[in-house]
């Protein structure tokens, strides 16, 4: 298992995994579904070294993105020093490997090395199984919140309340 930055050569695979994740969300019913993401967003994340992947035997097994500011979602809490994780998507050929736990261990080290106090992520809607999964992966569940301003955010943020999770690295 290798964790590394995604490259522009991975972009078709990234979009394939997003499509698979969206289709899976649709099949779950009562779960907020990811919209189609803008290609420019992913290209920017790649060029800024904020799009990551796990590869196993030269195959992309899992992807995610990070950012260091997430003001619209985290509002006042955005003033804290944090790494924010977005859009974890797993290749179905590698399901069951608990990549969230592997990402959490990696991102905790990454956050410490860049002087950040928190590791954070969010999800939309009341997806009880996903909330439990994130809690079991070490996140504190902060609750469900209605966002004040969703303009410019992907569409799923205006469809349901957002669930916020964090790990305080000083605890």
UniProtKB/TrEMBL annotation:
<dbReference type="InterPro" id="IPR000182">
    <property type="entry name" value="GNAT_dom"/>
</dbReference>
<keyword id="KW-0808">Transferase</keyword>
<dbReference type="InterPro" id="IPR016181">
    <property type="entry name" value="Acyl_CoA_acyltransferase"/>
</dbReference>
<dbReference type="Pfam" id="PF00583">
    <property type="entry name" value="Acetyltransf_1"/>
</dbReference>
<protein>
    <submittedName>
        <fullName>GNAT family N-acetyltransferase</fullName>
    </submittedName>
</protein>
<dbReference type="GO" id="GO:0016747">
    <property type="term" value="F:acyltransferase activity, transferring groups other than amino-acyl groups"/>
</dbReference>
<feature type="domain" description="N-acetyltransferase">
    <location>
        <begin position="1"/>
        <end position="170"/>
    </location>
</feature>
């Amino acid at each position: 298992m290798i964790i590394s930055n995604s490259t522009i050569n991975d972009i078709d695979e990234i979009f394939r995994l997003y499509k698979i994740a969206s289709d899976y969300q649709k099949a779950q019913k009562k779960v907020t579904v990811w919209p189609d993401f803008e290609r420019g967003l992913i290209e920017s994340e790649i060029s800024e070294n904020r799009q990551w992947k796990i590869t196993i035997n030269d195959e992309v097994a899992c992807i995610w993105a990070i950012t260091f500011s997430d003001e619209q979602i985290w509002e006042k809490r955005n003033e804290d020093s944090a790494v924010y994780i977005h859009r974890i998507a797993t290749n179905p050929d590698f399901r069951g490997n608990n990549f969230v736990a592997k990402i959490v261990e990696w991102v905790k080290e990454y956050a410490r090395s860049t002087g950040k106090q928190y590791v954070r992520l969010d999800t939309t809607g009341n997806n009880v199984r996903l909330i439990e999964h994130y809690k079991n992966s070490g996140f504190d569940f902060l609750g469900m919140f209605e966002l004040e301003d969703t303009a410019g955010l992907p569409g799923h943020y205006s469809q349901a309340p957002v669930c916020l999770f964090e790990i305080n690295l000083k605890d």
